[in-house]
Amino acid sequence: MKRIAFLATLFTAVLVIVLPFVGGGGPGLTSQAVADSGSATPLLASMTAPVAAPVVEAPRVALATTVRVTDDYAQAQAEAEKVALTQDWEHIAQKPVPKPVVVILEDGSVDRRTLLASQGLACPTDAGGSVGGAPAAYSAQGVPGTTSDDLASFASTYNAIRIENCLDPIPYGNFFYDSCMEARLFWMAESPSPDPLDAWGHMGSVRIDGVPSTGCDGNLAGGSGNTGSTVASKWWYSLAHRASLYRPGDDVGGACIAFAMTHGGIDEPYDFARAAARWVSC
Fold first, then answer.
1. Is the Cβ–Cβ distance between 221 and 196 less than 8 Å?
2. CA distance 218 to 262
3. d(Cα 63, Cα 124) in Å, to the nearest integer?
4. What does pTM read for this prediction?
5. pLDDT above 70 coverage of the chain, percent
6. Sites in the chain below the pLDDT cut of 70
7. pLDDT tens string 162-207
8. In 113-180, beta strands by DSSP E
């Protein structure tokens, strides 16, 4: 019986000592350490249950748009790179810029466009202002004289020709009707000769009837179907009249253009025009 009592006592001691380590429901040493408020550090840190780390969300990165590179695209990129490698980008800005060549025309004059380009300038644009009027007077024998339309069409074409040839235009307010030149044109139109060229000429001319010239002289143009615009072109294409009326090399500051025109004559229809113009100082 003593043997049985001894074994029972031994078995009970084993249960009390070993059971907590085997997985029993009683509090273990770790639980006791954590629950002990007098100790700041667990007695068996290696056996302490792991504390869960705070969950940190991974940063969100925007996905780049996928670009499909085709064979043609890759080849084009390679060709562009090949061309770029042949350029001397480092020294190209250091190369001297050639000066514009000033062209001399057949008549010995200087081409205005190339001359201005050599100075870093451009050809002028149209002038401002407005053209004045004309009275549309009649001669003693009823020949119609200069109209406002005659003067305006002449001034418009005159300046258009200047701009086309890189010349400074004349302000439109500097074109005016000239009654003195108109008197001279009336004298021509009233010639009794059937030949329209009878009284055609400059100062000192005498008509077939012996009447000497009157009025003021100027550059002359005319003929059937002429207008203020057509006579402006005629004077440009005649080198002598161009030099007199357009004066390509002269400064236009203070320049005025006087103009007059008649329509028909005592022996000519209305569409036969005579015109006169001159460059004067304002």
1. no
2. 14
3. 58
4. 0.63
5. 69
6. 1-69, 73, 84-99
7. 999 999 999 999 999 999 999 999 999 999 999 988 888 878 889 9
8. 175-177
Domain positions in the chain are: 97-124, 127-281
**Do the bridges between strand 255-263 and strand 175-177 make them parallel or antiparallel, or are there none, so unpaired?**
parallel
Nearest-5° Cα angle at 168, 164 to 169: 80
Residues 229, 185: Cα–Cα separation, whole Å: 18
Burial class from Cβ neighbours inside 10 Å (0-12, 13-18, 19+) for residue 156 reads middle
Backbone phi, then psi, for 258, in 5-degree steps?
-95, 145
Which 8-state DSSP code applies to residue 24?
Answer: -
Q: At what angle do helices 228-237 and 148-164 cross, to 10 degrees?
A: 40
Half-sphere exposure of 74 (CA within 13 A, CB side): 5
Which residue has tokens 């780390």? 53
272-281: strand order across its sheet: 175-177, 255-263, 272-281, 219-224
> For residues 236 and 201, what is the distance between their CA atoms, to the nearest angstrom?
19
- The SS3 assignment for 130 reads coil
Annotate 39-54 with b (16+ C-beta within 10 A) or e (fewer): eeebeeeeeeeeeeee
> What are the phi and psi torsion angles at 8 (to 5°)?
-65, -40
Residue in the block written with tokens 């004066």: 247
